[in-house]
Amino acid sequence: MRAPLSDLPIVLEDAAVVVGSLTILNDIALTFLAGAPSVLVGPNGGGKTTLLRLAMGLVAPSRGRVTWGGRIDAASTRRAIVFQRPVMLRRSATGNIHYALRAAGVARRECASRTAELLTLVGLSALGDRPARKLSGGEQQRLALARALAKEPQVLFLDEPTASLDPAASKAVEDVIRAVTARGIKVVMATHDLGSARRLAGDIVLLHRGRIVETTNVKTFFTNPATREARSFVAGELLI
Asked: What percent of the chain has pLDDT over 90?
């Protein structure tokens, strides 16, 4: 039996994204490997969301290329993405996950047990019957994570998963990310929350004006950043 294809490593080779006269990303050379989360940080407009979409395969590079496990075909069922403001279906929390499972090709007879497992993983077992749109912001974010995990991805992209959440809700989301990582799923996450980055990341990528300023392990980034921009960013200064 042939082993299933892997999407890792994801390699971006001198990749650029240009829309009209606007260069959103330029000269991106980056590799995402299995292991601890890779966290993208940087000021607004730096290109973090576009980089997630590029690595996911939702955006084609204008120059350069992206490969997944050595392949250039962007189509995959082994990658999933959760955007900053996920849309909830007009169904219960259980119904949202059941829909995602069926869309992923899971047999109907397996959906009930898989739904219960995913609700437990994201800490929403007691809220399965509640309308998804009545959940709090943090609960909706965790439900969106459960839906993304329905397709059993190898790589999970997250865009600002704790944005606008209070500390308790942020911790609950971070706990899910740790649980996902413990299952061997590679997380690539964009965030403005340096505390979250420090707690979750294995490596940090600092983006500014569409370019990579610095990429290194999390400890080095916060204790001994190599570039002036990184030192300023860690110190809380504005990058303009």
From this structure: 93
